Amino acid sequence: MKSKSWFRRLALFFGFAFLYVPILSMVVYSFNNSRLVTVWDAADSPTLKWYRLLFSNEQMLSAAWLSIQVATVNATGAVILGTLAGLVLARFGPFKGRTLLSAMTTAPLVCPEVITGLSLLLLFVFMEQLIGWPQGRGFTTIVIAHITFSMAYVTVVVQSRLSTFDDSLEEAALDLGARPAKVFFRITLPLILPAILSGWLLAFTLSWDDLVISQFVAGPGSTTLPMVVFSKVRLGVSPDINALATIMVTIVGIGVILSSLYMRRQERRLALEMQLAKAEK
Amino acid sequence: MARSQVRQPPKPLIDTWGAGRLGLIFSLLYRFGPPRWSQYVRKNWAGRRLVVAAPYLWLFLFFAVPFIIVLKLSFSEVRLAMPPFAPLIEKVGDLAYALNVNLGNYAFLLSDALYVNSYLYSVKVAAISTVFCLLLGYPMSYAIARSTPTLRSLWLMLIILPFWTSFLLRVYAWVGLLKTDGLINQVLGLLSLGPFTMMYTDFAVYIGIVYSYLPFMILPLYSNLEKHDLTLLEASADLGAGPIKSFLRITLPLSASGIIAGSLLVFIPAVGEYVIPSLLGRSDQLMIGRVLTDEFFSNRDWPVASAVSTAMLLLLVVPIVLFQRYQNRELAGARK
To answer: Which chain B residue has the Cα nearest residue A159?
Structure first.
């Protein structure tokens, strides 16, 4: 197999160059003094003026604050519902309507966003006519729409985490007399905690990032950050967006590195505890 | 496991639960499904209903019902009112109701070349992008799956990292690269090539889709390739097959399910893609996602927009069902 290793290196090199050159170009040009994004103004760069411009943009800041609120509420809701759905699908065995539930949790993963957005908006319009709720569109409707599509991701993460364990620990706890709810909180929940955490982050990111569905279900006066960014970049390149991208890449980079270190430590501890438990037996 | 032999064999379920039409199938499923905890929960825990009901009701109300509304609306007639359509069942007199079922929206879709064209164009763009994604993603997944474990988790982290940053901003990055006076043309200019027109072409859309959806192609492929038994390749080398022949006869057929899953995960959302063609694509040829939003927001023709999305779903129903079957098999297979 040695002969093919140059090919594998080449594939990785080009693949990662393709993935990272655009991101790096945004980072570099965010420090460029020139308004023309493609001209590097060597005399006055690097500069932080696009960052200053970004932080003095009221519209952008209030949209970012709304996005953070939506994403936080969404992630929490999606984690609760998604964990329940994952638990049901992985542990409750067959029951009536299981097929429908599993279909409804995998379809949002691939369903084109325009369809989800349109159908949810129509639902909200109909509901307002029928029962008078939700009144108008805004924060609530965005959160509901986001929970609906992001809980599917949480479900998949939790379900696949649960299916890597058998239920012998839960069973042991039941044999020792714990009630099912207690079993869930004392045994199952700690076991799937890493999956729940990454599900929360995933749901947060999906919501923070979503443009199409928000555009459908948002009302006037509830503009999320992607909507502001989209209307700006549609008109052409603007350098303060590069600055925004740089900030986000930095935060995400740090976050991903920290969480992967944490996950790895958690995995090791879990593996060790499992081994110890087996050895004692 | 030794413990399971001590345990008493489970009672046949047919008399206790699910004795209906599907009772036998369920009891068979139960035999090979998760054992006693679920049985206990199924029988004895009242809270179980609540746990099932919460996600079920949510998804039913906010995912299934909206589709029914879309379907219903696609048969309505457009009206200048708010909401801008005629009700399906209309009260015309004291006890008289009129049923307004209208196939006109679908006839309109078929008769107007704009819609048929943009459907075909969307499928073409999505298919070509999927192929490019596979051509780039397969070698990468292969290389990652054959790396040492430490490097492997590093590579995987690097694949997933862009996925966590904003999709919109990553598409936007390509505007700066692909423009006529953009970075790529500047670099090519140093080699006295170009400049090429790349923005607002099909090529730019392919790039955008491949770039945004690459992780969705790589991850299922990787999880498939990682499980391969490498001794098969050794055996085929012993029997005199070259590396290319071994790849074509062993690795490629074994990775078929990963290829299918990754391709579906790219193809299905790409058909309805809205952001990428709006930022990078042609303005004379719209993709169907754009047609739908224009129809809804600009023309305020809700029934036609619903018909467009119903037709899109019909187009995607086969790939979506295929994907679901794959996904369920993966999740069930992980348990073994």
So the answer is: B331
Find the angle CA(B188)-CA(B189)-CA(B194) to the nearest 5 degrees: 75
Angle (deg, nearest 10), helices A139-162 and A189-209: 140
A27 → chain B, closest CA residue: B173
Nearest to B41 among A92, A256, A264 (CB): A92
- List, for residues A60-108, the tens digit of each pLDDT value: 999 999 999 999 999 999 999 999 999 998 888 777 888 888 888 888 8
**Touching A: B residues 143-162, CB under 8 Å:** 143-144, 146-147, 153, 155, 157-162
Q: How far is CA B98 from CA B70, B87, B106, in A?
A: 20, 9, 21
pLDDT tens, B7-26? Answer: 554 544 433 444 444 445 55
Q: Does A3 lie at the interface with B, CB-CB under 8 angstroms?
A: yes
Look up tokens 């160059």; give the residue.
A17
Domain boundaries, given as residue ranges, for chain A: 58-235, 237-281
What's the whole-model pTM score? 0.84
Amino acid at B193: L
Residues A207, A212, A217: CA angle, nearest 5 degrees: 80
Taking the Cβ of residue A177 and every Cβ of chain B, the question of whether any pair is shorter than 8 Å is answered with no
Question: Which has the closest alpha carbon to B308: B323, B293, B329, B325?
Answer: B293
Which residues in chain A have Cβ-Cβ distances shorter than 8 Å to B26? Answer: 94
Chains A and B form CB pairs within 8 A to the count of: 302
Q: Which of B5, B32, B62, B188 would you mutate first to test chain A, the one with the most A CBs within 10 A? A: B62
Say how far apart CA A9 and CA A211 lie, in whole Å.
36
The CATH number given to A58-235 is 1.10.3720.10
Ranking A66-70, A220-224, B60-64, B329-333 by mean pLDDT, the lowest is B329-333
The residue ranges of every structural domain in chain B are: 108-333
CATH class of B108-333: mainly alpha
